[in-house]
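Onboarding guide, step 5: your first structure request.
Type a short instruction followed by the sequence, for example:

Predict the 3D structure of this protein.
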Amino acid sequence: MKLKTILTFAVAASFAAGVISCEDMLKVDSKTVMFDSQHQLDEATDTTYSILGIIKQMQKIADRSVILGEVRGDLVELTDHATDDLREIYSFDFQNVKKTNKYDQALDYYAIINNCNYYLNNVDLDYKRNEEYVFRKEYVVVLCYRAWAYLQLAQAYGEVPFFDKPITGDVSLASGNKLNIKELALTLLADFKDEYMDYELPNYGDLQGETTGSGTTPSSHKSTELFIPVRLIMGDLYLWAEDYANAALCYHGFLTNRRKTYPTGTNGILWKSNDFLSVNGFSASYTNLFSDGNYLCYIPMEADEYSGVVSDLPNIFNSTDDNYNWYQMTYSRGATALSTRQDYCYHCRYSSVNPRQWAEYMNKDDEEVILYRGDLRLNEVFTHRTKELTIEQLNTGRYSTETQTLNKINSEKVWLYRKDVVYLRLAEALNRCGLPQTAFAILKTGLCNESIDSLRSQGLLTHEMERARNIDGVDISSVYSFPTQYFTRATATWATTNLGGGSTAAKAMYEVFSWGPVMNVGNTIGIHSRGCGDAGYDPNYRIPVDTTAAVITLTDSIRAVEEALIDEMGLETCFEGYRFGDMMRIAMHRAADEGHPGYGGFAENEFLAKRVAVREDATLDETQDRYSVMDDALYQKLLGADGKSLNKNWFLVLPDEK
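The system replies with structure tokens like these:
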């Protein structure tokens, strides 16, 4: 993709005149963020150039959002060929990170934020064309971009200066009012209105750049997939702000929106049979979840350096000609331990005796292919092969014959959200609303009307459904309502017969009712079933509370679900950039639990510290405690002095603080 070409295409599509170059608006140096003179945004072309100018700035931090989320987590290890920049971040020695480290450039975030502030403060929201407001949809899009950039910045740096006005002169970052991520989320939420959730995303059509300098044709991009859905970013803000009820409503509202609903689908990995000789995908391959059409939005990247900013993620995670097959990052021993410790449930779906019969096959003894043990997702997304080199490659002496491919990488699209991420965050919010059974159902069975009815008939949701009617004064009982198919007989013949023959109205009704999305037990599974067989039939997969305790409180159940949830986040969204943020956010939730170590602090630091500390040393022996072997020095650093204050060892250091 060439953004310059896309800009030209998009402006032509807007049928308007007038030019403003966002690319030239922003100038930064090591200490300041600057704008040139003020410009009122009141021409139709301003909106297109401004939005795509912000996307161009986002390209600079796209890779970084993934790297900083994973390299500080527990699921990756570096190889001997990792760059010094990666090693500095992996070491958590942030005070000594070089100024040139490309992952530690805070001003790149402020470039995005400043562009957003410029737009938000100068756009004419009352400007109309053909009796329609021109800028209001884009105004919400820019709010979402700014919120996303601020959340990424705060996850990287902890406490960050906040600016809501464009900087128009020499200003040090130190002049901003510093906010931690919870304070930042609360502040940003003040600019969002509930009515924004009903705005449709702008649509500039499909964007296709011209042939690149290398002679390749870049990917085309649906413009609507470049915009962050407002319900998702508001849900994230509410989640970081610990307003769990409104977070749950936002996520559920997105998944069940009247325009489009998002069942989980049934993609996953199964053993073909109980002999454990080979695996296969079912209802489409599991790796299809990481292809076009299964993500909700992304940052578009250039096809080659001639065209602009390219993603380096393929060279970090994959073997390529550019890195002579020497990938820099791979899954950690911690990730292997997490995967192999899961139980795989083989469900005899087609048993003539009992269709609901299940059998559990641990498959814990496979030493030849260790990732065949337990959960199958890690084995599915990573491919390791021995590659036969060409004569030319052999003659260089540079190439490795051992190759790695991570099937979650797309060189021209750095993904921001996909369905399973939203479901997992919905579970996180519901759990903290005091609905642990409901949250756990997202992992075990999936949520749809049939599964909710089944769980209620077992007495599992009775009290929770009542509790949902009043959580901190908010009624979230709507989370138990999922759309179902409108007409079971809505075939073309039925529509013609019953909806007035072949009239336009009949066809319209048929399209609405027949093709409306369906959420039911046929297309909804528990997220754990992606890699662990049929989790819904596994009696051993349950909320992991201490059954020996004399009394199990609601708080005990909530915290136990969080243990299962953070594991599921690791199994399902590994290497996508969410890991460190997920651990930090749940550690923050736990700080409010009275009677537990983190009470009253910023976070329950141990929750994060113990996981990261075993990334290279995790035991695969299931008779041992999973945290029995760890890097104690790293554990103590991430735990901090009192184990609950905002721990600056988690975060990079802003330029003015070094």
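Each response can be followed by summary notes, for example: Residues 226 and 297 are 5 Å apart (CA to CA).
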